[in-house]
Amino acid sequence: MATLGEFEVLVMLSVLRLGDAAYGVAVRKELAARTGRNPSRGTVYATLRRLEEKGHVESQLGEPTAERGGRAKRFLRPTRAGLEALSGSLRDLDRMREGVGLPAPEEA
Amino acid sequence: MSAPTGGAPRRLVRSVVGALVTMLAGRDHADAMLGDLDEEAAARSGGALLRGFWYAREASSLVAGLVVERARGALGGAGAHWAGAGWDELRTAFRGIRRRPGGPALVALTMAVALTGVTTVFSLVHAAWLRDLPWDDDRALVRVFSAYGGLDGATSRTAVAPEVLRSVVDASPALVGAGAWTVGETVHFDTGEKTVRLDAPRVTHGLFGLLGVEAERGRLFTPEEETPGADAVVLLSDAFWRSAFGGDDDVVGRTMVLDGAAHRIVGVVPPAAAPVEPDVWRPLALGPEWYVDGRLGWEMLDVVGRLAPGTDAPAATRSLSEAFAARSPDRAQRLRQSVVAVPLREEMLGATGRVLLGLLAAAVLVVLVACANVATLLVARFEERARDIAVRRSLGATSGALARLALMESAVVCALGGAAGLALTQLALAGLTRSRIDLLAPLGRLQVSPAVVLFTLLAVGGTALVVGLAPAYRARRVEAQAVVREGGGRAHGTRTGAATRRTLVVVEIALALVLMSGVAVSLRSLHALTRVDPGFRPGGLVAARLEMPAGRLARERAAGWDRVTERVAAIPGVDAAGLVYALPLTGTAWSASFSLVDPDPDQAELEPGANMRPASPGYFQAAGLKVVRGRGLSEADGPDALPVVVVDETLGRRFWPGRSPVGRRVVLGVFLDRDTATVVGVVSDVRDQGLHAPDSGHMYFPVAQSPQRTMTLVARSTRDLPAMGPALREAVREVEPRMPVVSVERAEERVRAALAGPRVATLVLAGFGAVAALLAALGIFGVVGWTVRGRIREIGTRVALGAARRDVMALVLGQVGRLWVLGAALGVAGGAAAGATLDRIVPGGAAVEPWVLALTAAAMGVLALLAALVPVVRALAVDAAEALRGG
């Protein structure tokens, strides 16, 4: 079964959280808002592109708007395979985590 | 707010970004990504400049991310992993450096120093070799010389006679063309206010065309102007046009008075129009008298030729020499005269190139030492962060990711070092250009060129890789448990880390040793050079170059020279004065051939060349040459007396081995009326063309019997130049008001100048050696000190159990000793191997001898002990109780 890298997991979760409003700008904002990380544009878009190529997300064009230079948004939605891969990766993390004493993460 | 539109630069940036993103992500996806970018840009506040920066940063991030993604796809598997997270690791590396800048700053500084050295030397090498000469297809250009075979196949090269140019060089199928100019001709330019001396060679009309040079103003010479009588025309050099005429556009067509005759200016040639850059050029107009066979020995032309397609210099030499032998079988056989072609680049660079290659090798060694040093620092840095790394490992960071982080850190510091190095190189090159060192003169103006920047980039990439490999390797092997077990999170690192550092220090010692033996060899050669007896006594000798006004007959010149010498000798404080064609070590050579009237039957050598030196009777005494046999020149050797010559010991040995030259007769065409002269004496040798090698011999004859236009007046005096210079000029003006004093200098300057090149080269090499040794010492200091810190508990235990100070010292010094023995063994082997390159740096270089290697190895040992001093003291101070309690 396909597994996801750490950053891919975060991006998938971000897409999930956003639901119908998931497109590039929103995904990046959501990631930044919830994790405090500030991943570069290149990293986020390259990951989205990869997830789509692997068939973990699919996309669909919205309406072009003037403020976007007449360009359409590309809305994202996880595929079934994507959801399976995501839950598989999360389950692996949980199982590995079990019983391991870790320092509490510092709050940003 | 609207999307950032408008403005030509912005439109350009946007279309470039658009094209890149479309190329990388495909049209559909690119559209959405660019739309997102615009949307966010539109939402940003701030001035246009700030938004421009933001846009540029975000766009380059997007492009970089997509490129990495592409690479990941292309590489697949392991490679993908490496390419993948590069961007994030770069940020992590930066963050790490920002947090603890001390170590990385030291590393960047080390790299900056090492890279400055190698980049500067590379710039010189590049200027010397890789840069094209400023002429069309310069690799096909050759210098053509007359050559005379000497003993043991050695040849001496001289300029070419006009007849040889016409009948051999111009006619040769090996060359598509040739051009020539006369050697060392000057004229007096009467500006109306004063008389100025100009370098004014005569040149064949085809030279500039052959080099692909066109007139900057006006035109070049025509073939018709090579006729005596039609040759009162002149071409200005760009520099002279600017300095004398202020770059006046209307200069063409005006007249200049040269040597009393009006010359019409027909054009201006651009800078670097020919291998020499005189003030003005005149046409080479030679009458038929120059082309009779007896003039074959009048070698006055410097010749450049262009090789025919498919020919090389050795083939051209064969072809030219065969043609010469067919033209003059007698000279070819009796004098072993031939005509040779030498690649122009080689000829123009000569010694400089060899020195630079040696220095480049040395600079690369310094970079390697710096790399090893920096690698130990980075390993230590990783070790100190062992706990951090162990935690990352346990959190799932792969060993690959850690290795990437290590590489990224080294890349960042090396890049910083490279940038600083490039800036320092620019400064160094500006300084070198200003320094006007003779050795660098052929290279012209030095600056950081695109090729130098590219070289620096490659060097940075290479060093980053080399430097990053050790910590990357270490990072891959860090096991969480091992760190916890061995180091307990303290600053001592692991056992494998220690081994890595020790290995690197051994490498440093070895490389530093190779460099230091190079320094030792160069110092020995330089020392030998400074002790060479130049054959004359430069101390207290002042030399003035004088020129006889134009238009005087030979006898008038002879009388004029007499007057000047006599007057200068009468200056108070002048002990002796004399005239000579040129002082030794001035680079002035007047080589001419002669023949023996009654050669010894067993005289093997047929080469008739000698360095010709007209001189006045007082010269030998004033310059400090000793008359070894017979007599020197005397006042009695006047214009009407029998021609006489004095030879030096070398010349005497060459032509009359084991016999006295005195009383022998020679034929040479330099005297007023007759050609046969008698040898009346032998004087001591001088070193003329350089201090490192003896010359082929000089022949002195009375200036009264062969009065030249240009002579050097030498005066031995107890007064120094500031007092002597004006007195000398005044004395000359008194008796010869129209005679320009071209220059006045101390003869000592000449000796110093001859040593300047080797001195600078040795200095640079010694600088490299010192940096390498210092780095090696720092490496030893680091590794030993760090061992002592790590073993404090052990040392404390030993002391508690009754170990003496001696034992503790042995423990620490044992480690130093092992490092040194290994490093020295490798270094001595390397030094012996590198000797061939390093001993080129100073001419007449001493060989890399075993005792030199042994001595440098011993010096390195002393340095190692010094470096270990502080750690040893620290180890001795260990208090048992404290160590056990605190450890």
Outline the fold blueprint.
The complex is a heterodimer of chains A (about 110) and B (about 900).
Chain A: H1 6-18, H2 24-35, H3 41-53, E1 57-61, E2 74-78, H4 80-97
Chain B: H1 8-25, H2 27-43, H3 48-75, H4 77-84, H5 86-99, H6 102-130, E1 141-149, E2 155-158, H7 162-169, E3 175-182, E4 186-190, E5 195-199, E6 202-203, H8 207-211, E7 217-218, E8 233-237, H9 238-245, E9 255-258, E10 261-269, E11 280-283, E12 301-307, H10 313-327, H11 329-334, E13 337-343, H12 344-349, H13 351-384, H14 386-394, H15 399-435, H16 450-477, H17 480-486, H18 495-531, E14 541-547, H19 554-569, E15 574-580, E16 591-593, E17 595-596, E18 609-615, H20 619-623, E19 627-630, E20 644-648, H21 649-655, E21 665-667, E22 676-683, E23 698-702, E24 710-717, H22 721-735, E25 741-746, H23 747-790, H24 792-800, H25 805-838, H26 850-876, H27 880-886
Parallel strand pairs in B: 6-11, 8-10, 18-23, 20-22
Antiparallel strand pairs in B: 1-2, 1-12, 1-13, 3-12, 4-5, 4-9, 7-10, 8-11, 9-10, 14-24, 14-25, 15-24, 16-18, 17-21, 19-22, 20-23, 21-22
Describe this structure in words.
The complex is a heterodimer of chains A (108) and B (887). Chain A is mostly helical and 108 residues long. Chain A is built from 4 helices and 2 strands. Chain A has helices at 6-18, 24-35, 41-53, 80-97; strands at residues 57-61, 74-78. In chain A, strands 1-2 form a two-stranded antiparallel ribbon. The N and C termini of chain A lie far apart (34 Å). The model of chain A has no long low-confidence stretch (mean pLDDT 86). Chain B is an alpha+beta fold and 887 residues long. Helix content of chain B is 54%, strand content 15%. In chain B, strands 4, 5, 6, 7, 8, 9, 10 and 11 form an 8-stranded mixed β-sheet that branches. In chain B, strands 16, 17, 18, 19, 20, 21, 22 and 23 form an 8-stranded mixed β-sheet that branches. In chain B, a hairpin with a 2-residue loop joins strand 9 and strand 10. In chain B, helix 7 crosses helix 10 (313-327) and helix 25 (805-838) runs antiparallel to helix 26. Chain B is globular and about 105 Å long. The A-B interface holds A 6, 23-25, 39-46, 49-50, 59, 61, 64-65, 67-69, 71-74 and B 2-3, 5, 25, 28-29, 31-40, 42, 58, 61-66, 68-69, 72, 87-88, 91, 396.
